[in-house]
């Protein structure tokens, strides 16, 4: 939905700017009422999930819709835990930048600096290229739930063909982000999850984010639903091992979190407590154009777009066909954060952002 998003959003802003400047804009109370009405209707239409909308310092919406466990008649709420999919990548990217701040690596370092037996054609792939999906590595090399340890994953990756010469262009790669997860473990001496917990999540006040380390109460984790089927909880022992997912998913997706914790992450990014200004500039810089002739760029784990009024939009989505998640941060005058987490992937969940934006920025 990346390119569709920009097109629709630009139209909304042009429409907004074309209105009589002297016309009174709706106040936040009116917006809150409209948003509440919208989301109540979407729930009736079948939306399952939780939504957070924060504008300036006011939380306009932070509520749950539909069921987290239909069998037990348990409703979603702001503390419900969801699979956030590829939004995981922004945490992996932030961890790499934290390690750079700590002097343990540089984003300009090459793979062979940290890994053994790297084939010649892959030796000079840099951490920067992994972060920006410009390494040439394949998008994926196996099922998310295939049993594969570090050694097996590296063997699969190193034996696969490059799609193009490293640094040549953008091509989304889950494999690249899993390699970043391995580098986090190699350079920190901790597991991927332990490092993120100690250096990102707990300092941000996020105590219900992770794979296995949070003490999740099972009744707070949303079941995934699709086509009338209950797919159960995403961290089931049938799918993951004791430490979390295997390497086809680890570090590129599958993190569990809530709208409550994602709000805390947004607030942490507005300070220098976790990442300093230099690191945040790298995180949210327009490093590489996603598509020739397009307007969307990839930063480090974030899509970066700029609207005609100068507003910058930092966002990412993720999903696995059952769970679907979006996080948007509008900077400058708009100063708005929107988090949508759903345990029933659908057109309603994917397009809800457009309805929300049309109310907020009308």
From TrEMBL:
Domain Beta-lactamase-related: 50-347
Gene3D superfamilies for this protein: DD-peptidase/beta-lactamase superfamily
PROSITE patterns associated with the record: PROKAR_LIPOPROTEIN (PS51257)
SUPFAM superfamilies per the UniProt record, alphabetical: beta-lactamase/transpeptidase-like
Domain of life (superkingdom): Bacteria
Transmembrane segments: none
Protein name: Beta-lactamase family protein
Organism for this UniProt entry: Aquimarina algicola
